[in-house]
Structures are given as C-alpha cells and as structure tokens.
Amino acid sequence: MKKFLIVFLVFIIGIGCVACKKKDDISDLSKDLSNYEIVLDLDTTTFSAQANLTLDYINSSADELSELKFHLYPQFFKENATDLVVSSTKLNDAYPNGLDYSMFEVGRVQVGGQDVAVEYAGEYSDILVVDLINILLPSERAQIYIEFSFSLPNCEHRFGYGENTINLANFYPIVCVYENGSFDESGYSPNGDPFYSELANYSVIVNMDSKDLILAGTGEKTNTRKSDGKYQTSFSAKLVRDFALVASDKFEIVSKRAGDVKVEYYYFSDENANEHLQAGVDAISTFSSLFGDYPYSTFSIVKTDFIYGGMEYPNLVMISADIESSVDYKNVIIHETAHQWWYAMVGNDEYTYPWLDEALTEYSTILFYDFNSDYDLTHSQIVDASKSNYTLFVSVYQDVLGDLDTSMRAVDEYDSEPEYTYCTYVKGVLMYESLYQLIGKDDFLSGLKIYFQENKYSNATPNDLINSFEKVCGSDLENFFSSWVNGKVVIR
Ligand SMILES: [Zn+2]
C-alpha cells in the first residue's frame, strides 16, 4: 500500500508539471549555437575510421578571436600517454589483452574553404590550433573543416573497443571553452571525467562496412539506410555539450516512455533487461519532477565494455558490463541518469571542479531512493555506508601517509584514484547530507530546483551552486561549503 501511494504521488507530480508549464523549446534555444557536422567512415575489421568535421562556429564571447583551439582527446590513448588514461592499478582491467594504443592524425584543415597549417599545442599534441585567417568578431561565425583519422585501442574505455562494444566517445576535435580571455587547454587524467565544453548542435553520419552493427548515440537516430555500398546511420542532436556513440553487433534493444521521452536500453546478455530499463525510466521521471524537465526526446542506456561503473554523455550513458549485482547495476543507471541534470544540462568544468557535478549526482542518486521505495537501497543505508567507508579511508590513509589532504580538488591534483573517489563522491555525499540536515528537505530541494533553473544550458561554478542554496535558506553558506571543499571538516 505504501509503495502504491508513493508511486501514485510521483505520477501526480509528473502530470502536474506537464499540465502547468511547457517544456523548453530546444529548436529555439539551439539557434545561436555552433553546429558540428561529422561524417565518420568506420572500418570494423581494423577498428579504425576516416572522418571529417565541418564546424559552423559562433564566437559567443565578447572578445575578437584570431584563432580557435580544439581538444584532441584520442592523443592521450597513444603509447606515450597511457598513464593519463588509467591508473596503474587498472591497467589489466582496461587492457585485458595487453596494452594497446590508438592512432590519431589530423589531415587537411580549412577555414572558409582556404587551407591553413595544422598546428599543435599541449604536451601530447592534444590541442589543435587553427588560425582563423581573419579576426572573428563577437557573434560572427566561421566555417572550419577538419579531416581526421584514427584507430581505436583494444581498451575498455571511452575511446576503445572490447569484446562486445566499440566505444566512440571524445573521438573528434571539440572546441576548447573560451573564458576570461583564453581557451581552456586542460589535458587528461585517469581520475574522473576530465572534460569541459560548451553546448552545440550535432549532425553525425556514420558509414559502416557491416550491416549487423547497431548504433546507440546522442540525440535522435534520423536515418538508417544503405548508401554507396555502406550501411549508414545518422544522428541529430541539438543543445548538447558532446556527442558519443556505442556500436555493437550484439545489441538488443528494449524501450519504454517516461512521459514523452523515449528511453531505450541497449544490451547484450541481460536477463533483467526490462528491470534495468525501468530504472532509467524511473530516474528520468523522478529527476524531472525533483529538479526540472528533461527536454530531449531520447535517452539511451547502453551496456558497454567499460572499465569503470558507468560514464555519462548527453542523452546517452554507458553502463559497465562488469557490474555483477543487479542492485549495483540499477544504482549506476540512476547515477548516470542524474548526470543528465548535473553535467549535461547544468555543465561545469569537470577538470577543475569534479566535485561540482559528481557529488551532486551521487547525492541525487540517494534522493531517488526517497521517492522510489520499491528499490533495494535507501537514503540512510547509503549515507551510513558512506560515513563508515570515509572514516575508514581517512584512518588507513593517515596511517600510511601521515598527513592526508582531504580537500575536494581538480582531477590532476589527486595522488591516487582512491583519494579522488573518496574525496569527490563519498565525502561529497556527506557534505550534501550535512546541508540537507542543516537547511531541511524542502529548502534543499528548492535550492536544487533554483540551481537547475538558473544554470541549465550553461556552465555553472561553485558560487552558482552556493548562491542557489543561499537564496532559499537566507543564510550565508560560504563557510559551510569552503570548510567541506577545503578539507577542514573532520568527520567521525
Ligand atoms: Zn558520475
């Protein structure tokens, strides 16, 4: 009876939202963004691709630009940078068949149809510098064309392939965020998701040599057909900060609607497929009610050969095939779905402030269980486990290291993966639980609604988050957050 009442309540809240306000108009919001058009010819026998990007870039800054800079993340999967891709303790898991490396090359680069030099920056040539030939004034657009080719490593990561899936994320040149007079050229780290990007629109055509390959991707699948002897699948995605694909000839798909969102689950060998799909549907519904609508038409949950639990991209999440228990699997689906709000819609610099999206996503996962009592985890169970795990971590590490830095810092400032995980996720949960107890459930949820409403479709900073909570509770929370983030809080 209790279960029924809670489900019914969520249902009523969901219907109420649809009836009282319209969803955001993506076409309208996406008009003044840059447009990425990518054509990718994928060779599944060599796990390699020839590709080109046509970018219609808009200078949305107030500065005049003479050049553009792009991240080339595949450069980090080459031989000389492996220690930045995974920590040494994870090498065997990431490369089950032995170390393997990518190839990545940039071919022709043109600006406005005119050839320009291919210029690199960054320690690993991980930044492509493109001379715009003419000064680009604020609000003006430039047309950039980049040919590139790559091979994927046999690596169970974002950019790589495993036994079951080909993971094509972070595979194309993406413009570095321009702020405070320069482009953000942050590199890579085995900790966290070292990315930072702006919203844009994507139109992607994938040509494949195999008719059996099924693709999951960001946005709507607009077309699957045979063209010039190749099997072609196209995607269109608007108002998203990245584009990712997963391909497999083993995929089966189950699908269900969460309101007007089509939720799809791409999987291989899963006897609980419908239950796992339902976790995604429940997560989309719950977080839409709690924080604000998910305005996109699709959401894909994709079982993937992936070294960590899961990974978020706009409209698409990767869930690791290595997760053994269904409770853990659903927990990861819920966590990655919460990232659609914290990372995908409310963006942030994940390299410098990984806690800003990760801690909130982890705590949102806990909030999910408050509204879905038919799941096997509860709010207090997770908070209690987080507290005992965190205190154990601190005592063990303090014994080993003497002085332990527990501040929540940039991904490259952690000495080890456990430090990153405990300081960002586990301590993050304790920080939000403390705030929840301090200001109360109603103000806490109102603060998150404000944070979402005021920062969606942009990049937020820690101050934006603090201001949102301060608005509802009327108290100064600067000291509260700084003592947690800077590592001054002692947890017993
Ligand atoms: Zn996460």
First and last CA, distance: 38 Å
Q: Judging by the overall fold, what is the CATH architecture of one domain?
A: Sandwich
Q: Give the CATH topology of one domain.
A: Immunoglobulin-like
Total count of helical runs of at least 4 residues: 12
User: In CATH, what is the homologous superfamily of one domain?
Assistant: tricorn interacting facor f3 domain
Beta-strand content bin: 25-35%
Low-confidence stretches: 1-20
What is the CATH domain class of one domain? Answer: Mainly Beta
Strand elements, count:
25
Largest sheet: 8 strands, mixed
Which structural class fits the helix and strand makeup? Answer: alpha+beta
Shape: globular
Residues in helices, as a percent range: 25-40%
> Roughly how many Å is the radius of gyration?
22 Å
Biggest sheet strand order reads 5-4-8-2-1-14-17-16
Short recap of the structure:
This protein is α+β, with helices and mostly antiparallel strands and 492 residues long. 33% of the residues lie in helices and 30% in strands. Among the domains are: 34-247, Immunoglobulin-like (Sandwich), CATH 2.60.40.1730; 379-485, Neutral Protease, domain 2, CATH 1.10.390.10.
